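Quick note —
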Amino acid sequence: MNIKSLLLGSAAALAVVSGAQAADAIVAAEPEAVEYVRVCDAYGTGYFYIPGTETCLKIEGYVRFQVDAGPNESGTSDWDAFTRGQVQFTAKSDTEYGPLTGVIVLQANADNASNQETILDSAYIDIAGFRAGLFYSWWDDGLSGETDVLASHDTLHNSIRYQYESGDFYAGISVDELEGVIHAGESDNNVGVALGLGGKAGAFSYQLIGGYDTDTEEGAIRGMGTVAIGPGTLGLAAAWASGANAYYDESEWTVAAEYAIQATDKLKITPGVQYFGSYGLDATGDDFSDNDAWKVGLTVDYQIVENFYAKASVQYLDADNSDDVTTGYFRLQRAF
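Predicted structure written out below.
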């Protein structure tokens, strides 16, 4: 074999090896399976399966722009604007005890570019009627308009609650941490117990609740009902407190009424009125004053398009030994 033959043979061998390696390099890898998001219809609309799990998730919320008006609403100004963004995550999955639910509500408020806050508005676990976490009590419920004041200003608590539900009826008990809800002479970490029941019977809905503040050793009860009459819904409510407490501290007693008129499919007009006996707290902050008060207002709701709403409200308050006060607001809200 001469040198020329040896070189040609070596070149041919290298070509075969190189060709094999090149062929191997361009073999396409098997594509990985893609798991697309699946709709979960077991718990209503808006839920989808978290990929790779059997947990269903729903994301919803709203964006709100609002202008408030009233005496010294912002410093010495009689008006103030703010914007809010809120998002809620609701996760559900089946268990042998029924659906296991987890809810997180995040809220961001902006009074202006430099004055903003983000808060945890709610976060709780719910299963088989038991609920534990940060959530609004039954006292946060109210009539549909903006005139009534039927609870204290603090209705969001760390609580443990059991609520029995059967058809259109519910009843339950809640143990609430009342930290930060302070009247004169109170400690800053109270415990409250609330009871509630309610339901629907045809066109009539009702609720009866009570709350006892163990620190002030005072309590309150409230009854509320609505019934469809004519073109709208009549709402009536009454509350009584044995003394100033964390559940109701606006007055010793009160009665309220409203009539929510569904004028069109998109327009609702709600006039309301409320009377307060022994309104506000006395100089000690422990007991109610000897003053009475009454309040009248009007709220208008309009659906501009689907998921886009406008609301306007004006309220007039006349209290003994105080100046009359007129307040109101205009709101635009986009829900999703």
